[in-house]
Amino acid sequence: MNNEIMIRYQKWLESPRVSEEDKAILRKMNQEQIDDAFFKMIAFGTGGMRGILGPGINRMNVHTLGRATTAFGTFMKTRDENALKRGVVISHDNRHFSREFTLKSAEILSQMGFTVYIFDDLRPTPELSYAVRYTHAIGGIMITASHNPKQYNGYKVYDEEGCQLVPDAIAPMLEILANMPDELSFEVPTAKEPGGIFFLGKEVDDDYIEMVKACQVHPELDKSDFPVVYTPQHGASLESALRVFSECGYNIIPVKEQCTHDPDFSGTKSPNPEVASAWELPLEYAKKNNAQLVVMTDPDGDRCGLAYLSSKGTYERLTGNQSAALLLDYLLSSMKEKGTLPENGVIYDTIVSSSMARNVAKTYGVGCESFLTGFKFIGDRIHHYEVLGHGPKFVFGYEESYGCLLSPEVRDKDGVQAILLYTEMALYHHLKGKCLDEVYEELQQRIGYYHSQMWDRYFEGASGDAVMQKIMKGLHASPLSSIGGIKVACVEDYLSDEKTFANGKKEAIVGLPKSDVVKFVLEDESTITVRPSGTEPKVKFYVETIGSKNDDLAGKAQRLIDDLFAQCGIH
Fold first, then answer.
1. Which residues are 296's β-sheet partners?
2. 41 φ, ψ to 5°?
3. What are the residues facing 450 on neighbouring strands?
4. Per the residue annotation, which of 91, 105, 110, 146 is the catalytic one?
5. Which residues, 6+ apart, have CB-to-CB distance to 354 below 8 Å?
6. Strand order in the sheet with 304-309
7. The whole model's pTM is what?
8. Quick one: angle between helices 2-14 and 31-38, nearest 10?
């Protein structure tokens, strides 16, 4: 393996395609850095291609990006005889090289004969999805590493519906990519006439903003005494979010230090809404301004988080599962009150999402369909029923990782839609004299008490990758029979598409593609789901415990994960 790594490394040092600047970086690498940069080709995962910036085949750079864009263009040409004319929309976030990668992708697609649409500057991921649909393009590309640290960038591809490509749909592109010469040898096909590169105008922004504003349920609420702190974490939704809030009449206090499009994220300790340190400065703003609510979008504007002023006078954060359950209850109760609740409504979530929102939906007679992790499966399902012409009516879709969707005019999670509706929900309850902790307690009294928590463990480099694969293979081959002293009632193996019950009975898992995921359902209805991240070198562990108000559900979750780690040899 080391010999192969050094051959790849040497090829980069000798290639005329590699810049002198990159060669200088390569020469300064130690052996561990060389191994990590060259032990495998950067892969497409649940969120596309994402990796550390720099030279190497396991890195984001113009060579790995150019090869992927050439494969994407070749694939798109097979999907429609008018693909070149319909064109591709490209957008990007605030990260290092995002604009350069956008222009490089546009140049390649233009050389292949595609019409290319780009924005004058960065735009959030949901607007890219919307713009694909607005222009009737054949596809889209978003240059982003979402909420990853500053050394990362990434690349997501979209179909003509503005939806990230699901596994079956993207398989032909991945086959094209696998059969192409390597990243330093591929050639971009040259069309007889290059395609034009056009800037999208203000009308796309205007249309997107109007769509977001139309998501409001109670636009008439009095917003005069409801200060809200907002931060885009240096990201792409700043302009869109501030415009939406302004036009809807909200009193927004921006976190100024985080309102620059800084690729180094210098104003925040983390750009990830799931991380506690991301909230330090926004919560300082909230305390100084007596804000009722704090809302945050991540760098590409598809995820959001919120913190609220509690009945105890403290600021508390909600998890993605908690906030989704609260928002869903607000939406469905408002629809019921207005007489607009559909008879055949449906929400979409994922197999790692809490069962709480599903049970909220059930109390309103609304169904639920669960998919693998990745919002593309939710967007694809919306399209499926559109084509079918009948079926359940989409009401709401969400992932536990702070992503949700209200209007299906976008086919990816939309942080701008989400923060507007979360703010409206909090205002609605505030005007009734309730803080969100009180509303959440009332909801739990109605449907039960749930504790959901996610742990992750990183496995860096070639050696870490081997350990990660060993853990997952072990769980598939020899699933645990008890965890934390509680017997496993059922093992759901999404790689074999099979459920195995404690009595030996087996059942097929129908309707989901194969995926490297194992879910343990315990006798007391607690669940533990294990899956490797599709975008980072880590394994994620999702635990949910269910019980009554007096149960120590968090302590129980900790005991379960401690025992699972012990049985798997994870430290």
1. 231, 305
2. -80, 135
3. 546
4. 146
5. 321, 324, 325, 400, 450, 452, 544
6. 252-254, 228-231, 293-297, 304-309, 315-317
7. 0.94
8. 90
Q: Name the token pair of 97.
A: 């090289």
Q: b or e along 75-111 (b: 16 or more beta carbons within 10 Å of the residue's beta carbon)?
A: bbbebeeebbebbbbbbbbbbbbbbebbbbbbbbbbb
Question: Is the CA virtual torsion 154, 18, 16, 90 positive or negative?
Answer: positive
Determine how many CB atoms are found less than 10 A away from the CB of residue 137: 25
**146 has catalytic annotation:** yes
Tens digit of each residue's pLDDT, the chain (571 residues): 579 999 999 999 999 999 999 999 999 999 999 999 999 999 876 568 999 999 999 999 999 999 999 999 999 999 999 999 999 999 999 999 999 999 999 999 999 999 999 999 999 999 999 999 999 999 999 999 999 999 999 999 999 999 999 999 999 999 999 999 999 999 999 999 999 999 999 999 999 999 999 999 999 999 999 999 999 999 999 999 999 999 999 999 999 999 999 999 999 999 999 999 999 999 999 999 999 999 999 999 999 999 999 999 999 999 999 999 999 999 999 999 999 999 999 999 999 999 999 999 999 999 999 999 999 999 999 999 999 999 999 999 999 989 999 999 999 999 999 999 999 999 999 999 999 999 999 999 999 999 999 999 999 888 898 999 999 999 999 999 999 999 999 999 999 999 999 999 999 999 899 999 999 999 999 999 999 987 778 999 999 999 999 999 999 999 999 999 999 999 8
CB 463, CB 497: distance < 8 Å = no
**Torsion-angle region of 234 (φ positive above 0: left; ψ -120 to 50: alpha; else: beta):** left
Please enumerate in sequence order all residues whose Cβ is within 8 A of that of 93, keeping only pairs 6 or more positions apart, or say none. 122, 124, 125, 142, 143, 144, 145, 235, 236, 299, 300, 301
3-state secondary structure 110-168: HHCCCCEEECCCCCCHHHHHHHHHHHCCCEEEEECCCCCCCCEEEEEEECCCCCECCHH
How many other CB atoms are there within 10 angstroms of residue 466's CB atom?
Answer: 13
Nearest to 363 by CA among 317, 328, 339: 328
Which pair of structure tokens corresponds to residue 570?
A: 């994870």
Strands (E), 436-517: 449-458, 482-483, 486-493, 498-501, 506-508
Strand partners, 520: 491, 528
* Chain-centroid distance, C-alpha 159: 17
How is residue 250 written in tokens?
Answer: 């909200």
Alpha carbon distances (Å) from 462 to 31, 302, 468, 474:
12, 31, 10, 19
Closest CA to 411 of 238, 170, 240, 160: 160
Write out the DSSP string of 52-119. Answer: EBSSSTTSBSHHHHHHHHHHHHHHHHTT-TTHHHH-EEEEE-SSTTHHHHHHHHHHHHHHTT--EEE-
The values of phi and psi at residue 365, to 5°, are: 75, 20
One-letter identity of residue 479: P
